[in-house]
Design a protein that fits this description.
Largest sheet: 5 strands, parallel
Shape: globular
Strand order of the largest sheet: 3-2-1-4-5
Structural class: alpha/beta
Strand content: 5-15%
Distance between the termini: 43 Å
């Protein structure tokens, strides 16, 4: 990871207000990084950042890549970016109390974040700890497990 982190922001519908509040609180830090957001979350994050920057008359710009909405493939797009090494951290405010129509995609996304050792927050407290870490503004090389034995395993195919 370089000093300029690539931060993915995702929030389920019942957690979007939490994400907006979190972005309002952390906007000065967030605009220093490259953001990757799924659909509606990206729209809300962008609007929030523009509003806060306007209030402060900031000359900063927003670096944001918006993916599709999660249920429409955005979670899978984000998973692909993680597997390609293009995401440094994931903040995913998910709703544990509501069944999601794309629950398998959510599980796959969290699995990939774990597999590739991406720091992941699934609640605001963890997101606060991550964004305030002294590692945020430094180079950091996460330890990746070697899956060579899995890739090179012999298959008994008849």
């Amino acid at each position: 990871m370089t000093k300029i982190k690539r931060i993915a922001l995702v929030a389920h519908d019942n957690r979007k207000a939490d994400m907006v509040e979190w972005v309002e609180w952390n906007w000065k830090k967030l605009i220093k990084y490259d953001l990757i957001c799924t659909g509606t979350t990206g729209k809300l994050v962008n609007e929030t950042l523009l509003k806060k920057m306007g209030e402060e008359e900031s000359n900063e710009t927003i670096s944001m890549k918006r993916l599709k909405s999660g249920p429409l493939g955005g979670d899978q797009q984000l998973g692909a970016l993680i597997s390609e090494g293009k995401v440094d951290m994931l903040i995913f405010l998910w709703d544990p109390m509501t069944a999601q129509p794309h629950d398998v995609d959510v599980k796959a996304l969290l699995r990939l974040a774990t597999l590739y050792n991406i720091p992941t927050a699934v609640n605001r407290s963890t997101a606060d700890f991550m964004i305030s870490s002294m590692l945020m503004d430094s180079n950091y090389k996460p330890i990746l497990k070697d899956y060579g034995s899995y890739i090179n395993r012999k298959l008994d195919i008849k």
